[in-house]
Amino acid sequence: MSAVSADETTDPTVRDGHRVVILGGGPGGYEAALVARRLGAQVTVVERHGLGGAAVLTDVVPSKTLIATAEWLTGSEAAPELGVREAGRTDVDLAAVNARVLALAAAQSADIRARLEREGARIVTGDGRLDGPGRVVVRAAEGGETVLDADTVLVAVGATPRTLPTAVPDGERILTWTQLYRLDALPRRLIVVGSGVTGAEFAGAYHALGCDVVLVSSRERVLPGEDEDAAALLEGVFRGRGMQVMSRSRAAGAERTADGVVVTLADGRVVEGSHVLLAVGAVPATAGLGLEEAGVALSPSGHVVVDKVSRTTARGVYAAGDCTGVLPLASVAAQQGRIAMAHALGDAVQPLRLGDVAANIFTSPEIATVGYSERQLREGGVRFVASTLPLARNPRAKMLGMRDGFVKLFAHPEAGVVLGGVVVSPRASELIFPITLAVAHRLTVDDVASAFTIYPSLSGSIAEGARVLHGQVSPGL
Ligand SMILES: Cc1cc2nc3c(=O)[nH]c(=O)nc-3n(C[C@H](O)[C@H](O)[C@H](O)COP(=O)(O)OP(=O)(O)OC[C@H]3O[C@@H](n4cnc5c(N)ncnc54)[C@H](O)[C@@H]3O)c2cc1C
Ligand SMILES: NC(=O)c1ccc[n+]([C@@H]2O[C@H](COP(=O)([O-])OP(=O)(O)OC[C@H]3O[C@@H](n4cnc5c(N)ncnc54)[C@H](O)[C@@H]3O)[C@@H](O)[C@H]2O)c1
């Protein structure tokens, strides 16, 4: 066993010898490491797999890279309307797609490692756990332990796919999203269990790649929790493309058959396919880390309890990212990590503001949201005015042959301040930004309406939506 302490460092940039140990090298961990280095701390990142975490190696980067191929294929849907004749069959080489996905993920992970090393962070490979609030013990895969003493510990260990005891992934036919990239041929019929964001993204992508897809949704409609109009639109698009969407259908289990899989539903129905993807949520990777023993409170779901500056219940121990369950997005994980380091190292701190977070569902069309949702406004009893402009009325969308989508804005009925918005459209992830700026900087609908937009452009619908709201806002009501 070897022990490392701040006294051993000869790094001249370490101003105060403050020792930060970060458990987990995903966005929560590596963004925190960069901030801590900038603030002069001695930083060690403990990572058992690869830098970039699940976000880079199995979740965000691989899924969005796969979706890039799917998007290219869906882009041709409007071809006949635009006067383009199909010259022949388009085939997807899934082995090539997955090789590209994995190469891109590996390269990004290597970039993050190089950046951290360049910035002077130390990277220790192995399984870390807390031994009290100020000490981390790392066990290397090849054996041997390293003890790291710390003034501040950041727990950013992420989450892993939830599975069902009656549907045990085998990596071949019964799969979690982390195992999909091993496939070298398109599944004949893919059953996606779970219609949250993960299920919807993969169901849409694999359908676009050419698979027969069945989406098993335990709820009334896909994407529960998202804007209802957006979810209904997407479900309609999925069905219109020929995807089988099974509503109110809870999977009880999945088993392999001679040449595929069978999923049994809770009501006894069975669904046959060649492969099944479990997209039934994630569990925080907090078990067995010595957290509670170190005084770190966990919620009943196993998430680390944190406040708005990422403090846990143990002094000197912070947590960020999916292991906190605050909002499982890479952007939020990164922000929580940065905030934690700023707080621990005495820099200016802005507590986490979830109301400003922008999110995007990478389906076709995409669904981007920011600020308050319509449900939050209604359930919170907040008075608001709303405008919804269908994309089909936008001149640029007409030229591009786009029909499915809309721009929705919410504003305060007196102050006119933009409270939130939803964009459903191709590349909604890019189009949401003006609304994000409006929400973040408390702009009014008149501020948005008075800015120039390109004619013709999809963003014209955002300004037009704001102009519609101008007529509904009554100052001094
Ligand atoms: C399919 C899918 C697609 C997604 N797409 C998006 C998207 O498009 N945009 C978006 O914003 N979010 C997306 N997300 C969410 C995003 O992946 C997470 O919010 C993000 O990964 C959280 O970052 P993190 O740092 O908390 O954890 P992670 O990225 O999970 O990193 C945690 C790291 O900690 C390591 N670790 C765990 N335990 C230990 C230990 N004991 N010792 C050492 N190391 C340990 C793990 O190996 C891992 O590398 C997606 C999620 C999924 C499932
Ligand atoms: N584009 C993105 O930013 C992106 C992409 C993927 C995930 N994420 C993040 O990850 C979070 C989690 O999303 P998720 O979709 O992985 O999980 P989730 O928990 O949101 O959705 C899982 C769904 O599976 C359903 N389900 C559970 N058991 C089932 C069963 N036995 N049969 C049928 N359905 C069942 C649940 O009712 C739920 O609707 C999201 O809220 C998001 O923050 C983000």
Descriptive account of the structure:
The chain is α/β, with parallel strands linked by helices and 477 residues long. It folds into three domains: 19-160 and 283-354, FAD/NAD(P)-binding domain, CATH 3.50.50; 174-280, FAD/NAD(P)-binding domain, CATH 3.50.50.60; 365-470, 2-Layer Sandwich (Enolase-like, domain 1). Helix content is 29%, strand content 23%. It is built from 13 helices and 24 strands. Strands 4-3-2-8-19 form a five-stranded parallel beta sheet, with helices on one face. α1 packs parallel to α7, α3 (60-74) packs across α4 (94-118) and α3 crosses α5. The protein is globular. The N and C termini lie far apart (70 Å). Nicotinamide-adenine-dinucleotide (NAD) binds at residues 164, 193-199, 201, 216, 218-219, 224, 250-251, 279-282, 328-329, 359-362. NAD(+) binds at residues 194-201, 281. Residues 19-337 form the FAD/NAD(P)-binding domain. Residues 358-464 form the Pyridine nucleotide-disulphide oxidoreductase dimerisation domain. FAD binds at residues 64, 128, 322. Belongs to the class-I pyridine nucleotide-disulfide oxidoreductase family.
